[in-house]
Amino acid sequence: MRIKQILQTKAEEQKISVKGWVRTNRDSKANAFIAINDGSCMSNLQVFVDKEIVTDQDVLRRAATGASIEVKGILVESPGQGQSVEVRAEEIIIIGDCPEDYPLQKKRHSNEFLREIGHLRGRTNTFGAVVRVRSAMAFAIHKFFQERGFVNLHTPIITASDAEGAGEMFQVTTLPFESFNSQNGIDYSRDFFGKKASLTVSGQLSAETYATAVGDVYTFGPTFRAENSNTTRHLAEFWMVEPEMAFCDINGDMDLAEEFLKYIISYVLENCAEDMEFFNKWVCKGILDQLRGVASADFARVTYTEAIAELEKANAKFEFPVSWGIDLASEHERYLSEEVYKRPVIVYNYPKEIKAFYMKLNEDGKTVRAMDVLAPGIGEIIGGSEREDSYETLIARIDELGLNREDYDWYLDLRKYGTVPHAGFGLGFERMIQYVTGMANIRDVIPYARTPKNCNF
Fold first, then answer.
1. Residue 88 near residue 76 (C-beta atoms within 8 A)
2. Dihedral (CA of 181, 182, 184, 185) sign
3. Are 303 and 349 in contact (CB under 8 A)?
4. Rounded distance between C-alpha atoms, residue 381 and residue 426, angstroms
5. 22, 67 in Cβ contact below 8 A?
6. Tell me: the pLDDT tens digits for 341-384?
7. From residue 200, how far is each of 58, 156, 401 by CA, in Å?
């Protein structure tokens, strides 16, 4: 039985077998108390060892912190207050020994230290809780979209298109290194794909093709960004959730984004209660109240122009001064959600100069139908837009930004053949986990972080 299941079982003096890793072993002359954990939940299972029944002293010695063991015994009511049941051991079998240099001894370890042993950190309370929340949230995301009739789409990881137009992409090539030192330029016709290819920064453009074929779709997969950033909010490899809806405008986009955030937060609060109590107590005090507030709030909605007007009133408080046309910094986003509106806020209709080429141009010619969801405690958590559905306008935007039309021929065809209004958004999965758990560094909410100069494990 898994420990999570055992702890939910009534003590009826039934025989059980349980396997896990030793967290602690308190030994005395007559008996021993071994706490084991199998990763199924936060709580350990206590094993009571009567040395008159389990007489092999070598086995008890080897059942040290980190060792993997199997315990066969009787499930009984626990006399202690920590949990309702415990196991009275009849037999202990050592599965895997653990020497004394095991780095995860019974003490608190810093997250910086645990990043150095990323292959072992999942055995700690913190990272076991993170990965369980991550798993539950991934399931909730699929559940949300499947319940609403969305089609799950697997978009390419290797692409020839830069969806964001920023050029911060990892190149994929089979050309020899010498080709990149050639004075005659690089002949990509000799490369594997016959053209320059990279790892994708977004599945959005590919999702649009199927949204305009089968209706509402979503993609949930890995994306990559070659941005040389070492902040607590950036990864080089991360996961994105990107729905795309046909016959949908910016208002429908904002409606879905709000509903989506509330759904997955509520799901985690309901299904990961023990882990979330841990985060609330040890990682970020007050995170439960903050999340409950988001899940029950009506999100504010303001235009970018209105948001700038509010921020300009408090310009003296900011490191980066505010004026119309700037891209909002994290301090501005948090001020709006935490101080001005005191709840999540959706800012929409941004200046076209600071947004991507594919966003629908408003009638004023200055702004596009983009929207960002800003949440207390983190700032931007979702970014999206109504997409430009006019063939002529999209060509003009591509030319205006100096992009190569030929790279987007297929994308332009969506506007040429039966164009429809459509919209979508992107949610950075790791940033959402960071927000829900209160973990300070995004490197600690993904099993193996990929950042500049870091590709270990």
1. yes
2. negative
3. yes
4. 9
5. yes
6. 999 999 999 999 999 999 999 999 999 999 999 999 899 999 99
7. 54, 7, 20
CATH code, 121-444: 3.30.930.10
255-273 pLDDT per residue, tens: 999 999 999 999 999 999 9
Element (H, E) at 394: helix 391-400
- What is the Cα–Cα distance from 198 to 243, expressed in whole angstroms? 22
Q: Which CATH architecture has domain 3-96?
A: Beta Barrel (2.40)
**CB under 8 Å to 7, separation ≥6 — which residues?**
41, 43, 45, 83, 84, 85
**Could you tell me the CA-to-CA distances from 259 to 71, 256, 341, 425, 431 in Å, in that order?**
46, 5, 19, 13, 18
CA distances from 117 to 24, 27, 112, 321 (A): 20, 29, 9, 41
Q: Which of 351, 347, 353 lies closest to 425 in space, CA to CA?
A: 347
Task: Please state the separation of Cα 91 from the chain's center in Å.
Answer: 42
- Whole-number Å distance between alpha carbons of 254 and 419: 21
Radius of gyration of the chain (CA): 27
Query: What letter does residue 201 receive in the DSSP assignment?
Result: S
3-state SS class at 207: helix
**Type of residue numbered 183:** Q
Residue position matching structure tokens 């991550």? 134
Instruction: Give me the mean pLDDT over the 219-237 stretch.
Output: 93
Q: How many CB atoms lie within 10 A of CB 297?
A: 18
The structure tokens 């490899």 sit at 237
Rounded alpha-carbon distances, angstroms, from residue 177 to 39, 182, 191, 194, 423: 45, 10, 12, 17, 41
* pLDDT for residue 177: 86
Strand ranges for 294-333 from DSSP E: 300-303
Rounded CA gap, 292 and 224, in Å? 32
pLDDT interval class at 168 (50, 70, 90): confident
Closest alpha carbon to 419 in 348, 358, 351: 358
What are the structural domain ranges in the chain?
Answer: 3-96, 121-444
In this predicted structure, the answer to whether residue 184 has a pLDDT above a threshold of 80 is no
Pair 383, 424: CB distance under 8 Å = no
And the tokens for 419?
Answer: 């164009």
